[in-house]
Fold this sequence. Notes:
By secondary structure, the chain is α/β, with parallel strands linked by helices.
Amino acid sequence: MWIPFRKGRHVVSRIRERFKVLTGRGEKALVAYITGGYPSLEVAGQMVLGLAECGADIIEIGVPFSDPIADGPVIQTASYQALQGGVTVAGILEMVQRVRQQSSIPLVLMSYYNPILQMGLQEFCYQAARSGVDGLIVPELPREESLPLLQAAEQAAIDVVPLVAPTSNRERIAAICARARGFVYCVSVTGITGEREEINTDLASLTGTIRKCTDLPLVIGFGVGNANTARNLAPLCDGVVVGSALMRLIIGDSFDRAGELVREIKSAINRQ
Length: 272
């Protein structure tokens, strides 16, 4: 039976609570991404727990999909191999449930819209919440078409985290933030996920506009591949996402190095 995270009679967002604790400590959040089911569901579950022990504050779990248009080659490779191994949405939710029995770390699913639609919006959100999912990112779903999913997620007490692209104008950012829950994901570059040698976007202006539109925590992702980049971004945000750099190490069987990278970035963003 699904037992939500409660304080008294109210369902409490683990994401909100985690940021509240971090803010109280004067810390920034590290969101660590892994591809669900790579190299197997069992190992992926162990990696979630391991990355949490290494200092990750939130884990983003990618749901493998056959046409991952927002992802770069590293995550595409992991997603393809997970699908070849028979990984399904149901399998990932079972993995989440096992993790939730051992950890209270906030868990956010990153899923393309098609797998959600195939299961049914309400059923997907119910099963995700029942498993222990706290948040949901749907990268290719336009704001104009998002209301049915937002309603289903709200009924299940799941935070839908929006992405704000560098090309978004003030009016669009305000509209996106008005429906945001959990945190706002600021995309640092146009294009797909992946490590970047440098980020040329005017992030000070973009994050400044987002701050004027919402009081929610602001997290920067896409292109964050090392401690130096993360350190430079930290003054502009409340946290960073590291994904492709982690998955590159995991694909290369460098699990220990992946843990070290999490420790390095966590230390870097909190050393201002």
